[in-house]
């Protein structure tokens, strides 16, 4: 679902940019076929790997692809994401997180274990260390809440507003550096011995993942280029 949604957004964005630049019809058609083919191959490999690892059934990965594309299409058309105030982002994150925590505690109080699937998976999986806590619904929800909060902070940062005015070369540089840092961040894992600490760190990691491309990287590159210009003037 995630891979399909992300690739769909990237492909449609590149095709829209090519259309705005009035790309020649033949070149645009070639670009269109190439990008959609590349997306199809990547999604196919991801789906096959999930089925091979027995992480999902075939019908689940197929449904995930269509759901991811549908979510990406709906969200890309929703412009309220950019116009919503920071207060709305904060209250929405607080409400959804609080609701999830309270609901989790209530179920735990009546002896309902939401992590029962972990024990089953560890029992039947060939290697128990392949089963991760971050695949549980509660952990996924907290990651999404961290992403929502980080998006709100990033979009309302003055640095994000300044970045939109920068040249294309600067934006490409931000993308390259951001992808590298996000790759390093993605490899960072946390111990699940203490669940509270694990969930808090997962929330923070997801928030930082959105702050890196929207705020932190543009701020760092602006500082570097500004320092170089001052040195040249001296």
UniProtKB/TrEMBL annotation:
The keyword Manganese does not apply. Its EC number is 3.1.3.9. SUPFAM superfamilies: Acid phosphatase/Vanadium-dependent haloperoxidase. The chain crosses the membrane at residues 35-53, 89-107, 138-156, 168-185, 197-225. Its main location: endoplasmic reticulum. InterPro entries: PAP2/HPO, PAP2/HPO_sf. GO terms for cellular component: endoplasmic reticulum membrane. One of its GO terms (biological process) is glucose 6-phosphate metabolic process. The keyword Signal applies. Residues 1-19 form the signal peptide. Keywords: Endoplasmic reticulum, Gluconeogenesis, Hydrolase, Membrane, Signal, Transmembrane, Transmembrane helix. Residues 4-75 form the Phosphatidic acid phosphatase type 2/haloperoxidase domain. Pfam families: PAP2. GO terms for molecular function: glucose-6-phosphatase activity. It is found in: Endoplasmic reticulum membrane. It comes from the Eukaryota. It is a multi-pass membrane protein. It is an enzyme of class 3 (hydrolase). Belongs to the glucose-6-phosphatase family. PANTHER family: GLUCOSE-6-PHOSPHATASE. This is glucose-6-phosphatase.
């Amino acid at each position: 679902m995630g891979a399909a949604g992300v690739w769909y957004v990237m492909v449609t964005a590149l095709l829209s940019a090519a259309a705005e630049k009035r790309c020649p019809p033949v070149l645009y058609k070639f670009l269109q076929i190439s990008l959609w083919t590349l997306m199809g191959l990547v999604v196919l490999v991801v789906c096959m790997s999930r089925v091979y690892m027995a992480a999902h059934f075939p019908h689940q990965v197929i449904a995930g692809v269509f759901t991811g594309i549908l979510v990406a299409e709906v969200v890309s058309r929703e412009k309220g994401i950019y116009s919503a105030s920071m207060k709305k982002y904060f209250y929405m994150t607080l409400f959804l997180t609080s609701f999830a925590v309270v609901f989790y505690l209530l179920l735990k109080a009546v002896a309902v274990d939401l992590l029962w699937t972990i024990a089953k998976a560890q029992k039947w999986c060939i290697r128990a260390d392949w089963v991760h806590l971050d695949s549980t619904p509660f952990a996924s929800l907290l990651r999404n809440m961290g992403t929502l909060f980080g998006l709100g902070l990033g979009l309302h940062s003055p640095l994000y507003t300044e970045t939109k005015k920068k040249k294309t070369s600067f934006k490409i540089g931000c993308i390259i550096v951001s992808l590298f840092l996000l790759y390093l961040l993605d490899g960072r894992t946390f111990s699940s011995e203490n669940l509270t600490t694990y969930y808090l760190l997962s929330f923070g990691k997801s928030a930082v993942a959105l702050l890196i491309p929207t705020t932190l990287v543009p701020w760092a590159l602006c500082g570097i280029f500004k320092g170089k210009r001052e040195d040249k003037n001296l």
